[in-house]
Amino acid sequence: MATSTTTSMNDYLEMDGNIAFNMAIFNRFSSIGDSCYAGICGGFVEGVYQWATHNIYGIDESANSKYTGWTINFENGASRRVYIENWVMDAKPKNWKHAKNLFGKYLRTDEKYNNSPAAQGSSY
Known about the structure:
alpha+beta
């Protein structure tokens, strides 16, 4: 097993079905009714995993010299963008919980894009 000095932020984000990444996305883009997933699935982590499985169609990653970003495409046709500074992605977290907390704290939403007509999906 890798030690904490060699485990990257990205390694932690990909652990356990990308749950740390999905938790950050859930915390930013879920609706009030989505909290029922935790009750149905028996816990918050299981609920987030099921929410992501049912709602996220795909994720596109991009990066430049300063930021790493993701466009999250949802099942209803909407998309949202989030980004984080590369120094956070280059960090060597102490453990999974530290990685999850750093990622959640520094992840930002692209409000200009997220509020644009291009990001809006179909309404039900």
